[in-house]
# Entry
Amino acid sequence: MLKKLFASALLLSLALPLTASAGDYRPGVAAHRGASGYLPEHTLPAKAMAYAMGVDYIEQDVVMSKDGKLLVMHDTLLDTTTDVAKRFPDRARKDGRFYSSDFTYDELRSLRVTERFDVKTGKPVFSGRFPDSPIAYQIPSLEEEFLQVQGLNKSTGRNVSVYVEVKEPVFFQEQGLDILKATIDMMTKYGYNSMESKAILQIFDYEAVVRARELGWKGELAMLVTASGQGHIDDKARHAWLQTDEGLRDVAKYATIYAPNFNLLAVPTEDAKAYTISDLGDRARKAGMKLHSWTLREDSLPKGFRTFGEVLDVAFKTIKVDGMFSDFPDILVKYLKDNDMR
Ligand code: CA
# Structure
């Protein structure tokens, strides 16, 4: 299948013009974990900074505590963005890692959130970003995130929405925690369970996308897709299927948004020196879904690209995504303004 995909990608890249007129094209910008290029990810200050940058969406990744509370952090593991290993050294599992579902809400709230670091070396993942510091940044609850966005919408008169990812529903189910239902219930409580609210629920797990509708989710729903799969065991095969026409037609019955990794749209060549534009985005649209993608980082370019400007041109002028995640949402907002797309 990959070979076929590649051949059609090559053909398409020849057929597509590199420039396009903007017109009424107005792609959405989602702040990935907040303005995470500038402040530690998934902290309320990083979210407020993203809001002030003029984004359309602020992202929340949701995990669950042992006592069933919803918190906002990227990993089910706690040790890459907090001081948990120092604070609770005897609470690691056999694999040496610390899991949110083994800690109560109060314990999780007592942790200090830092810039993301490598657990083996202790070095920051992105060396140019916010330094390690003693500032007592906390893990926000999902409720606090909603309150901050809605509070800012009131005080500024703007209408920014939320883009909520349920992390690893199968893992939490195994811990006896129904994270999907709890997240939908919380979003419903805060008025997000409708298309009009613009709020988006996003999930890597196909079964959970289907179940979200069964649980009564009425709003925008994004199927996240990767080359590698993510989470539970059959995901790699499932995510390959999600890129076939049959898979696209099927998931379009539930999802309104198809959201592949950017490297599935601009596919790096084997030597990673160039890329070809695949037809995946067009096929997803043909199946009736909007096209979103992730994640653009100025300090870590997608394979095959030489400048961030080139990445932005391909995303917004060639592929014309309907929405894009970035750690540096201010650069995207400025680019879209400069190019009459905002
Ligand atoms: Ca996410």
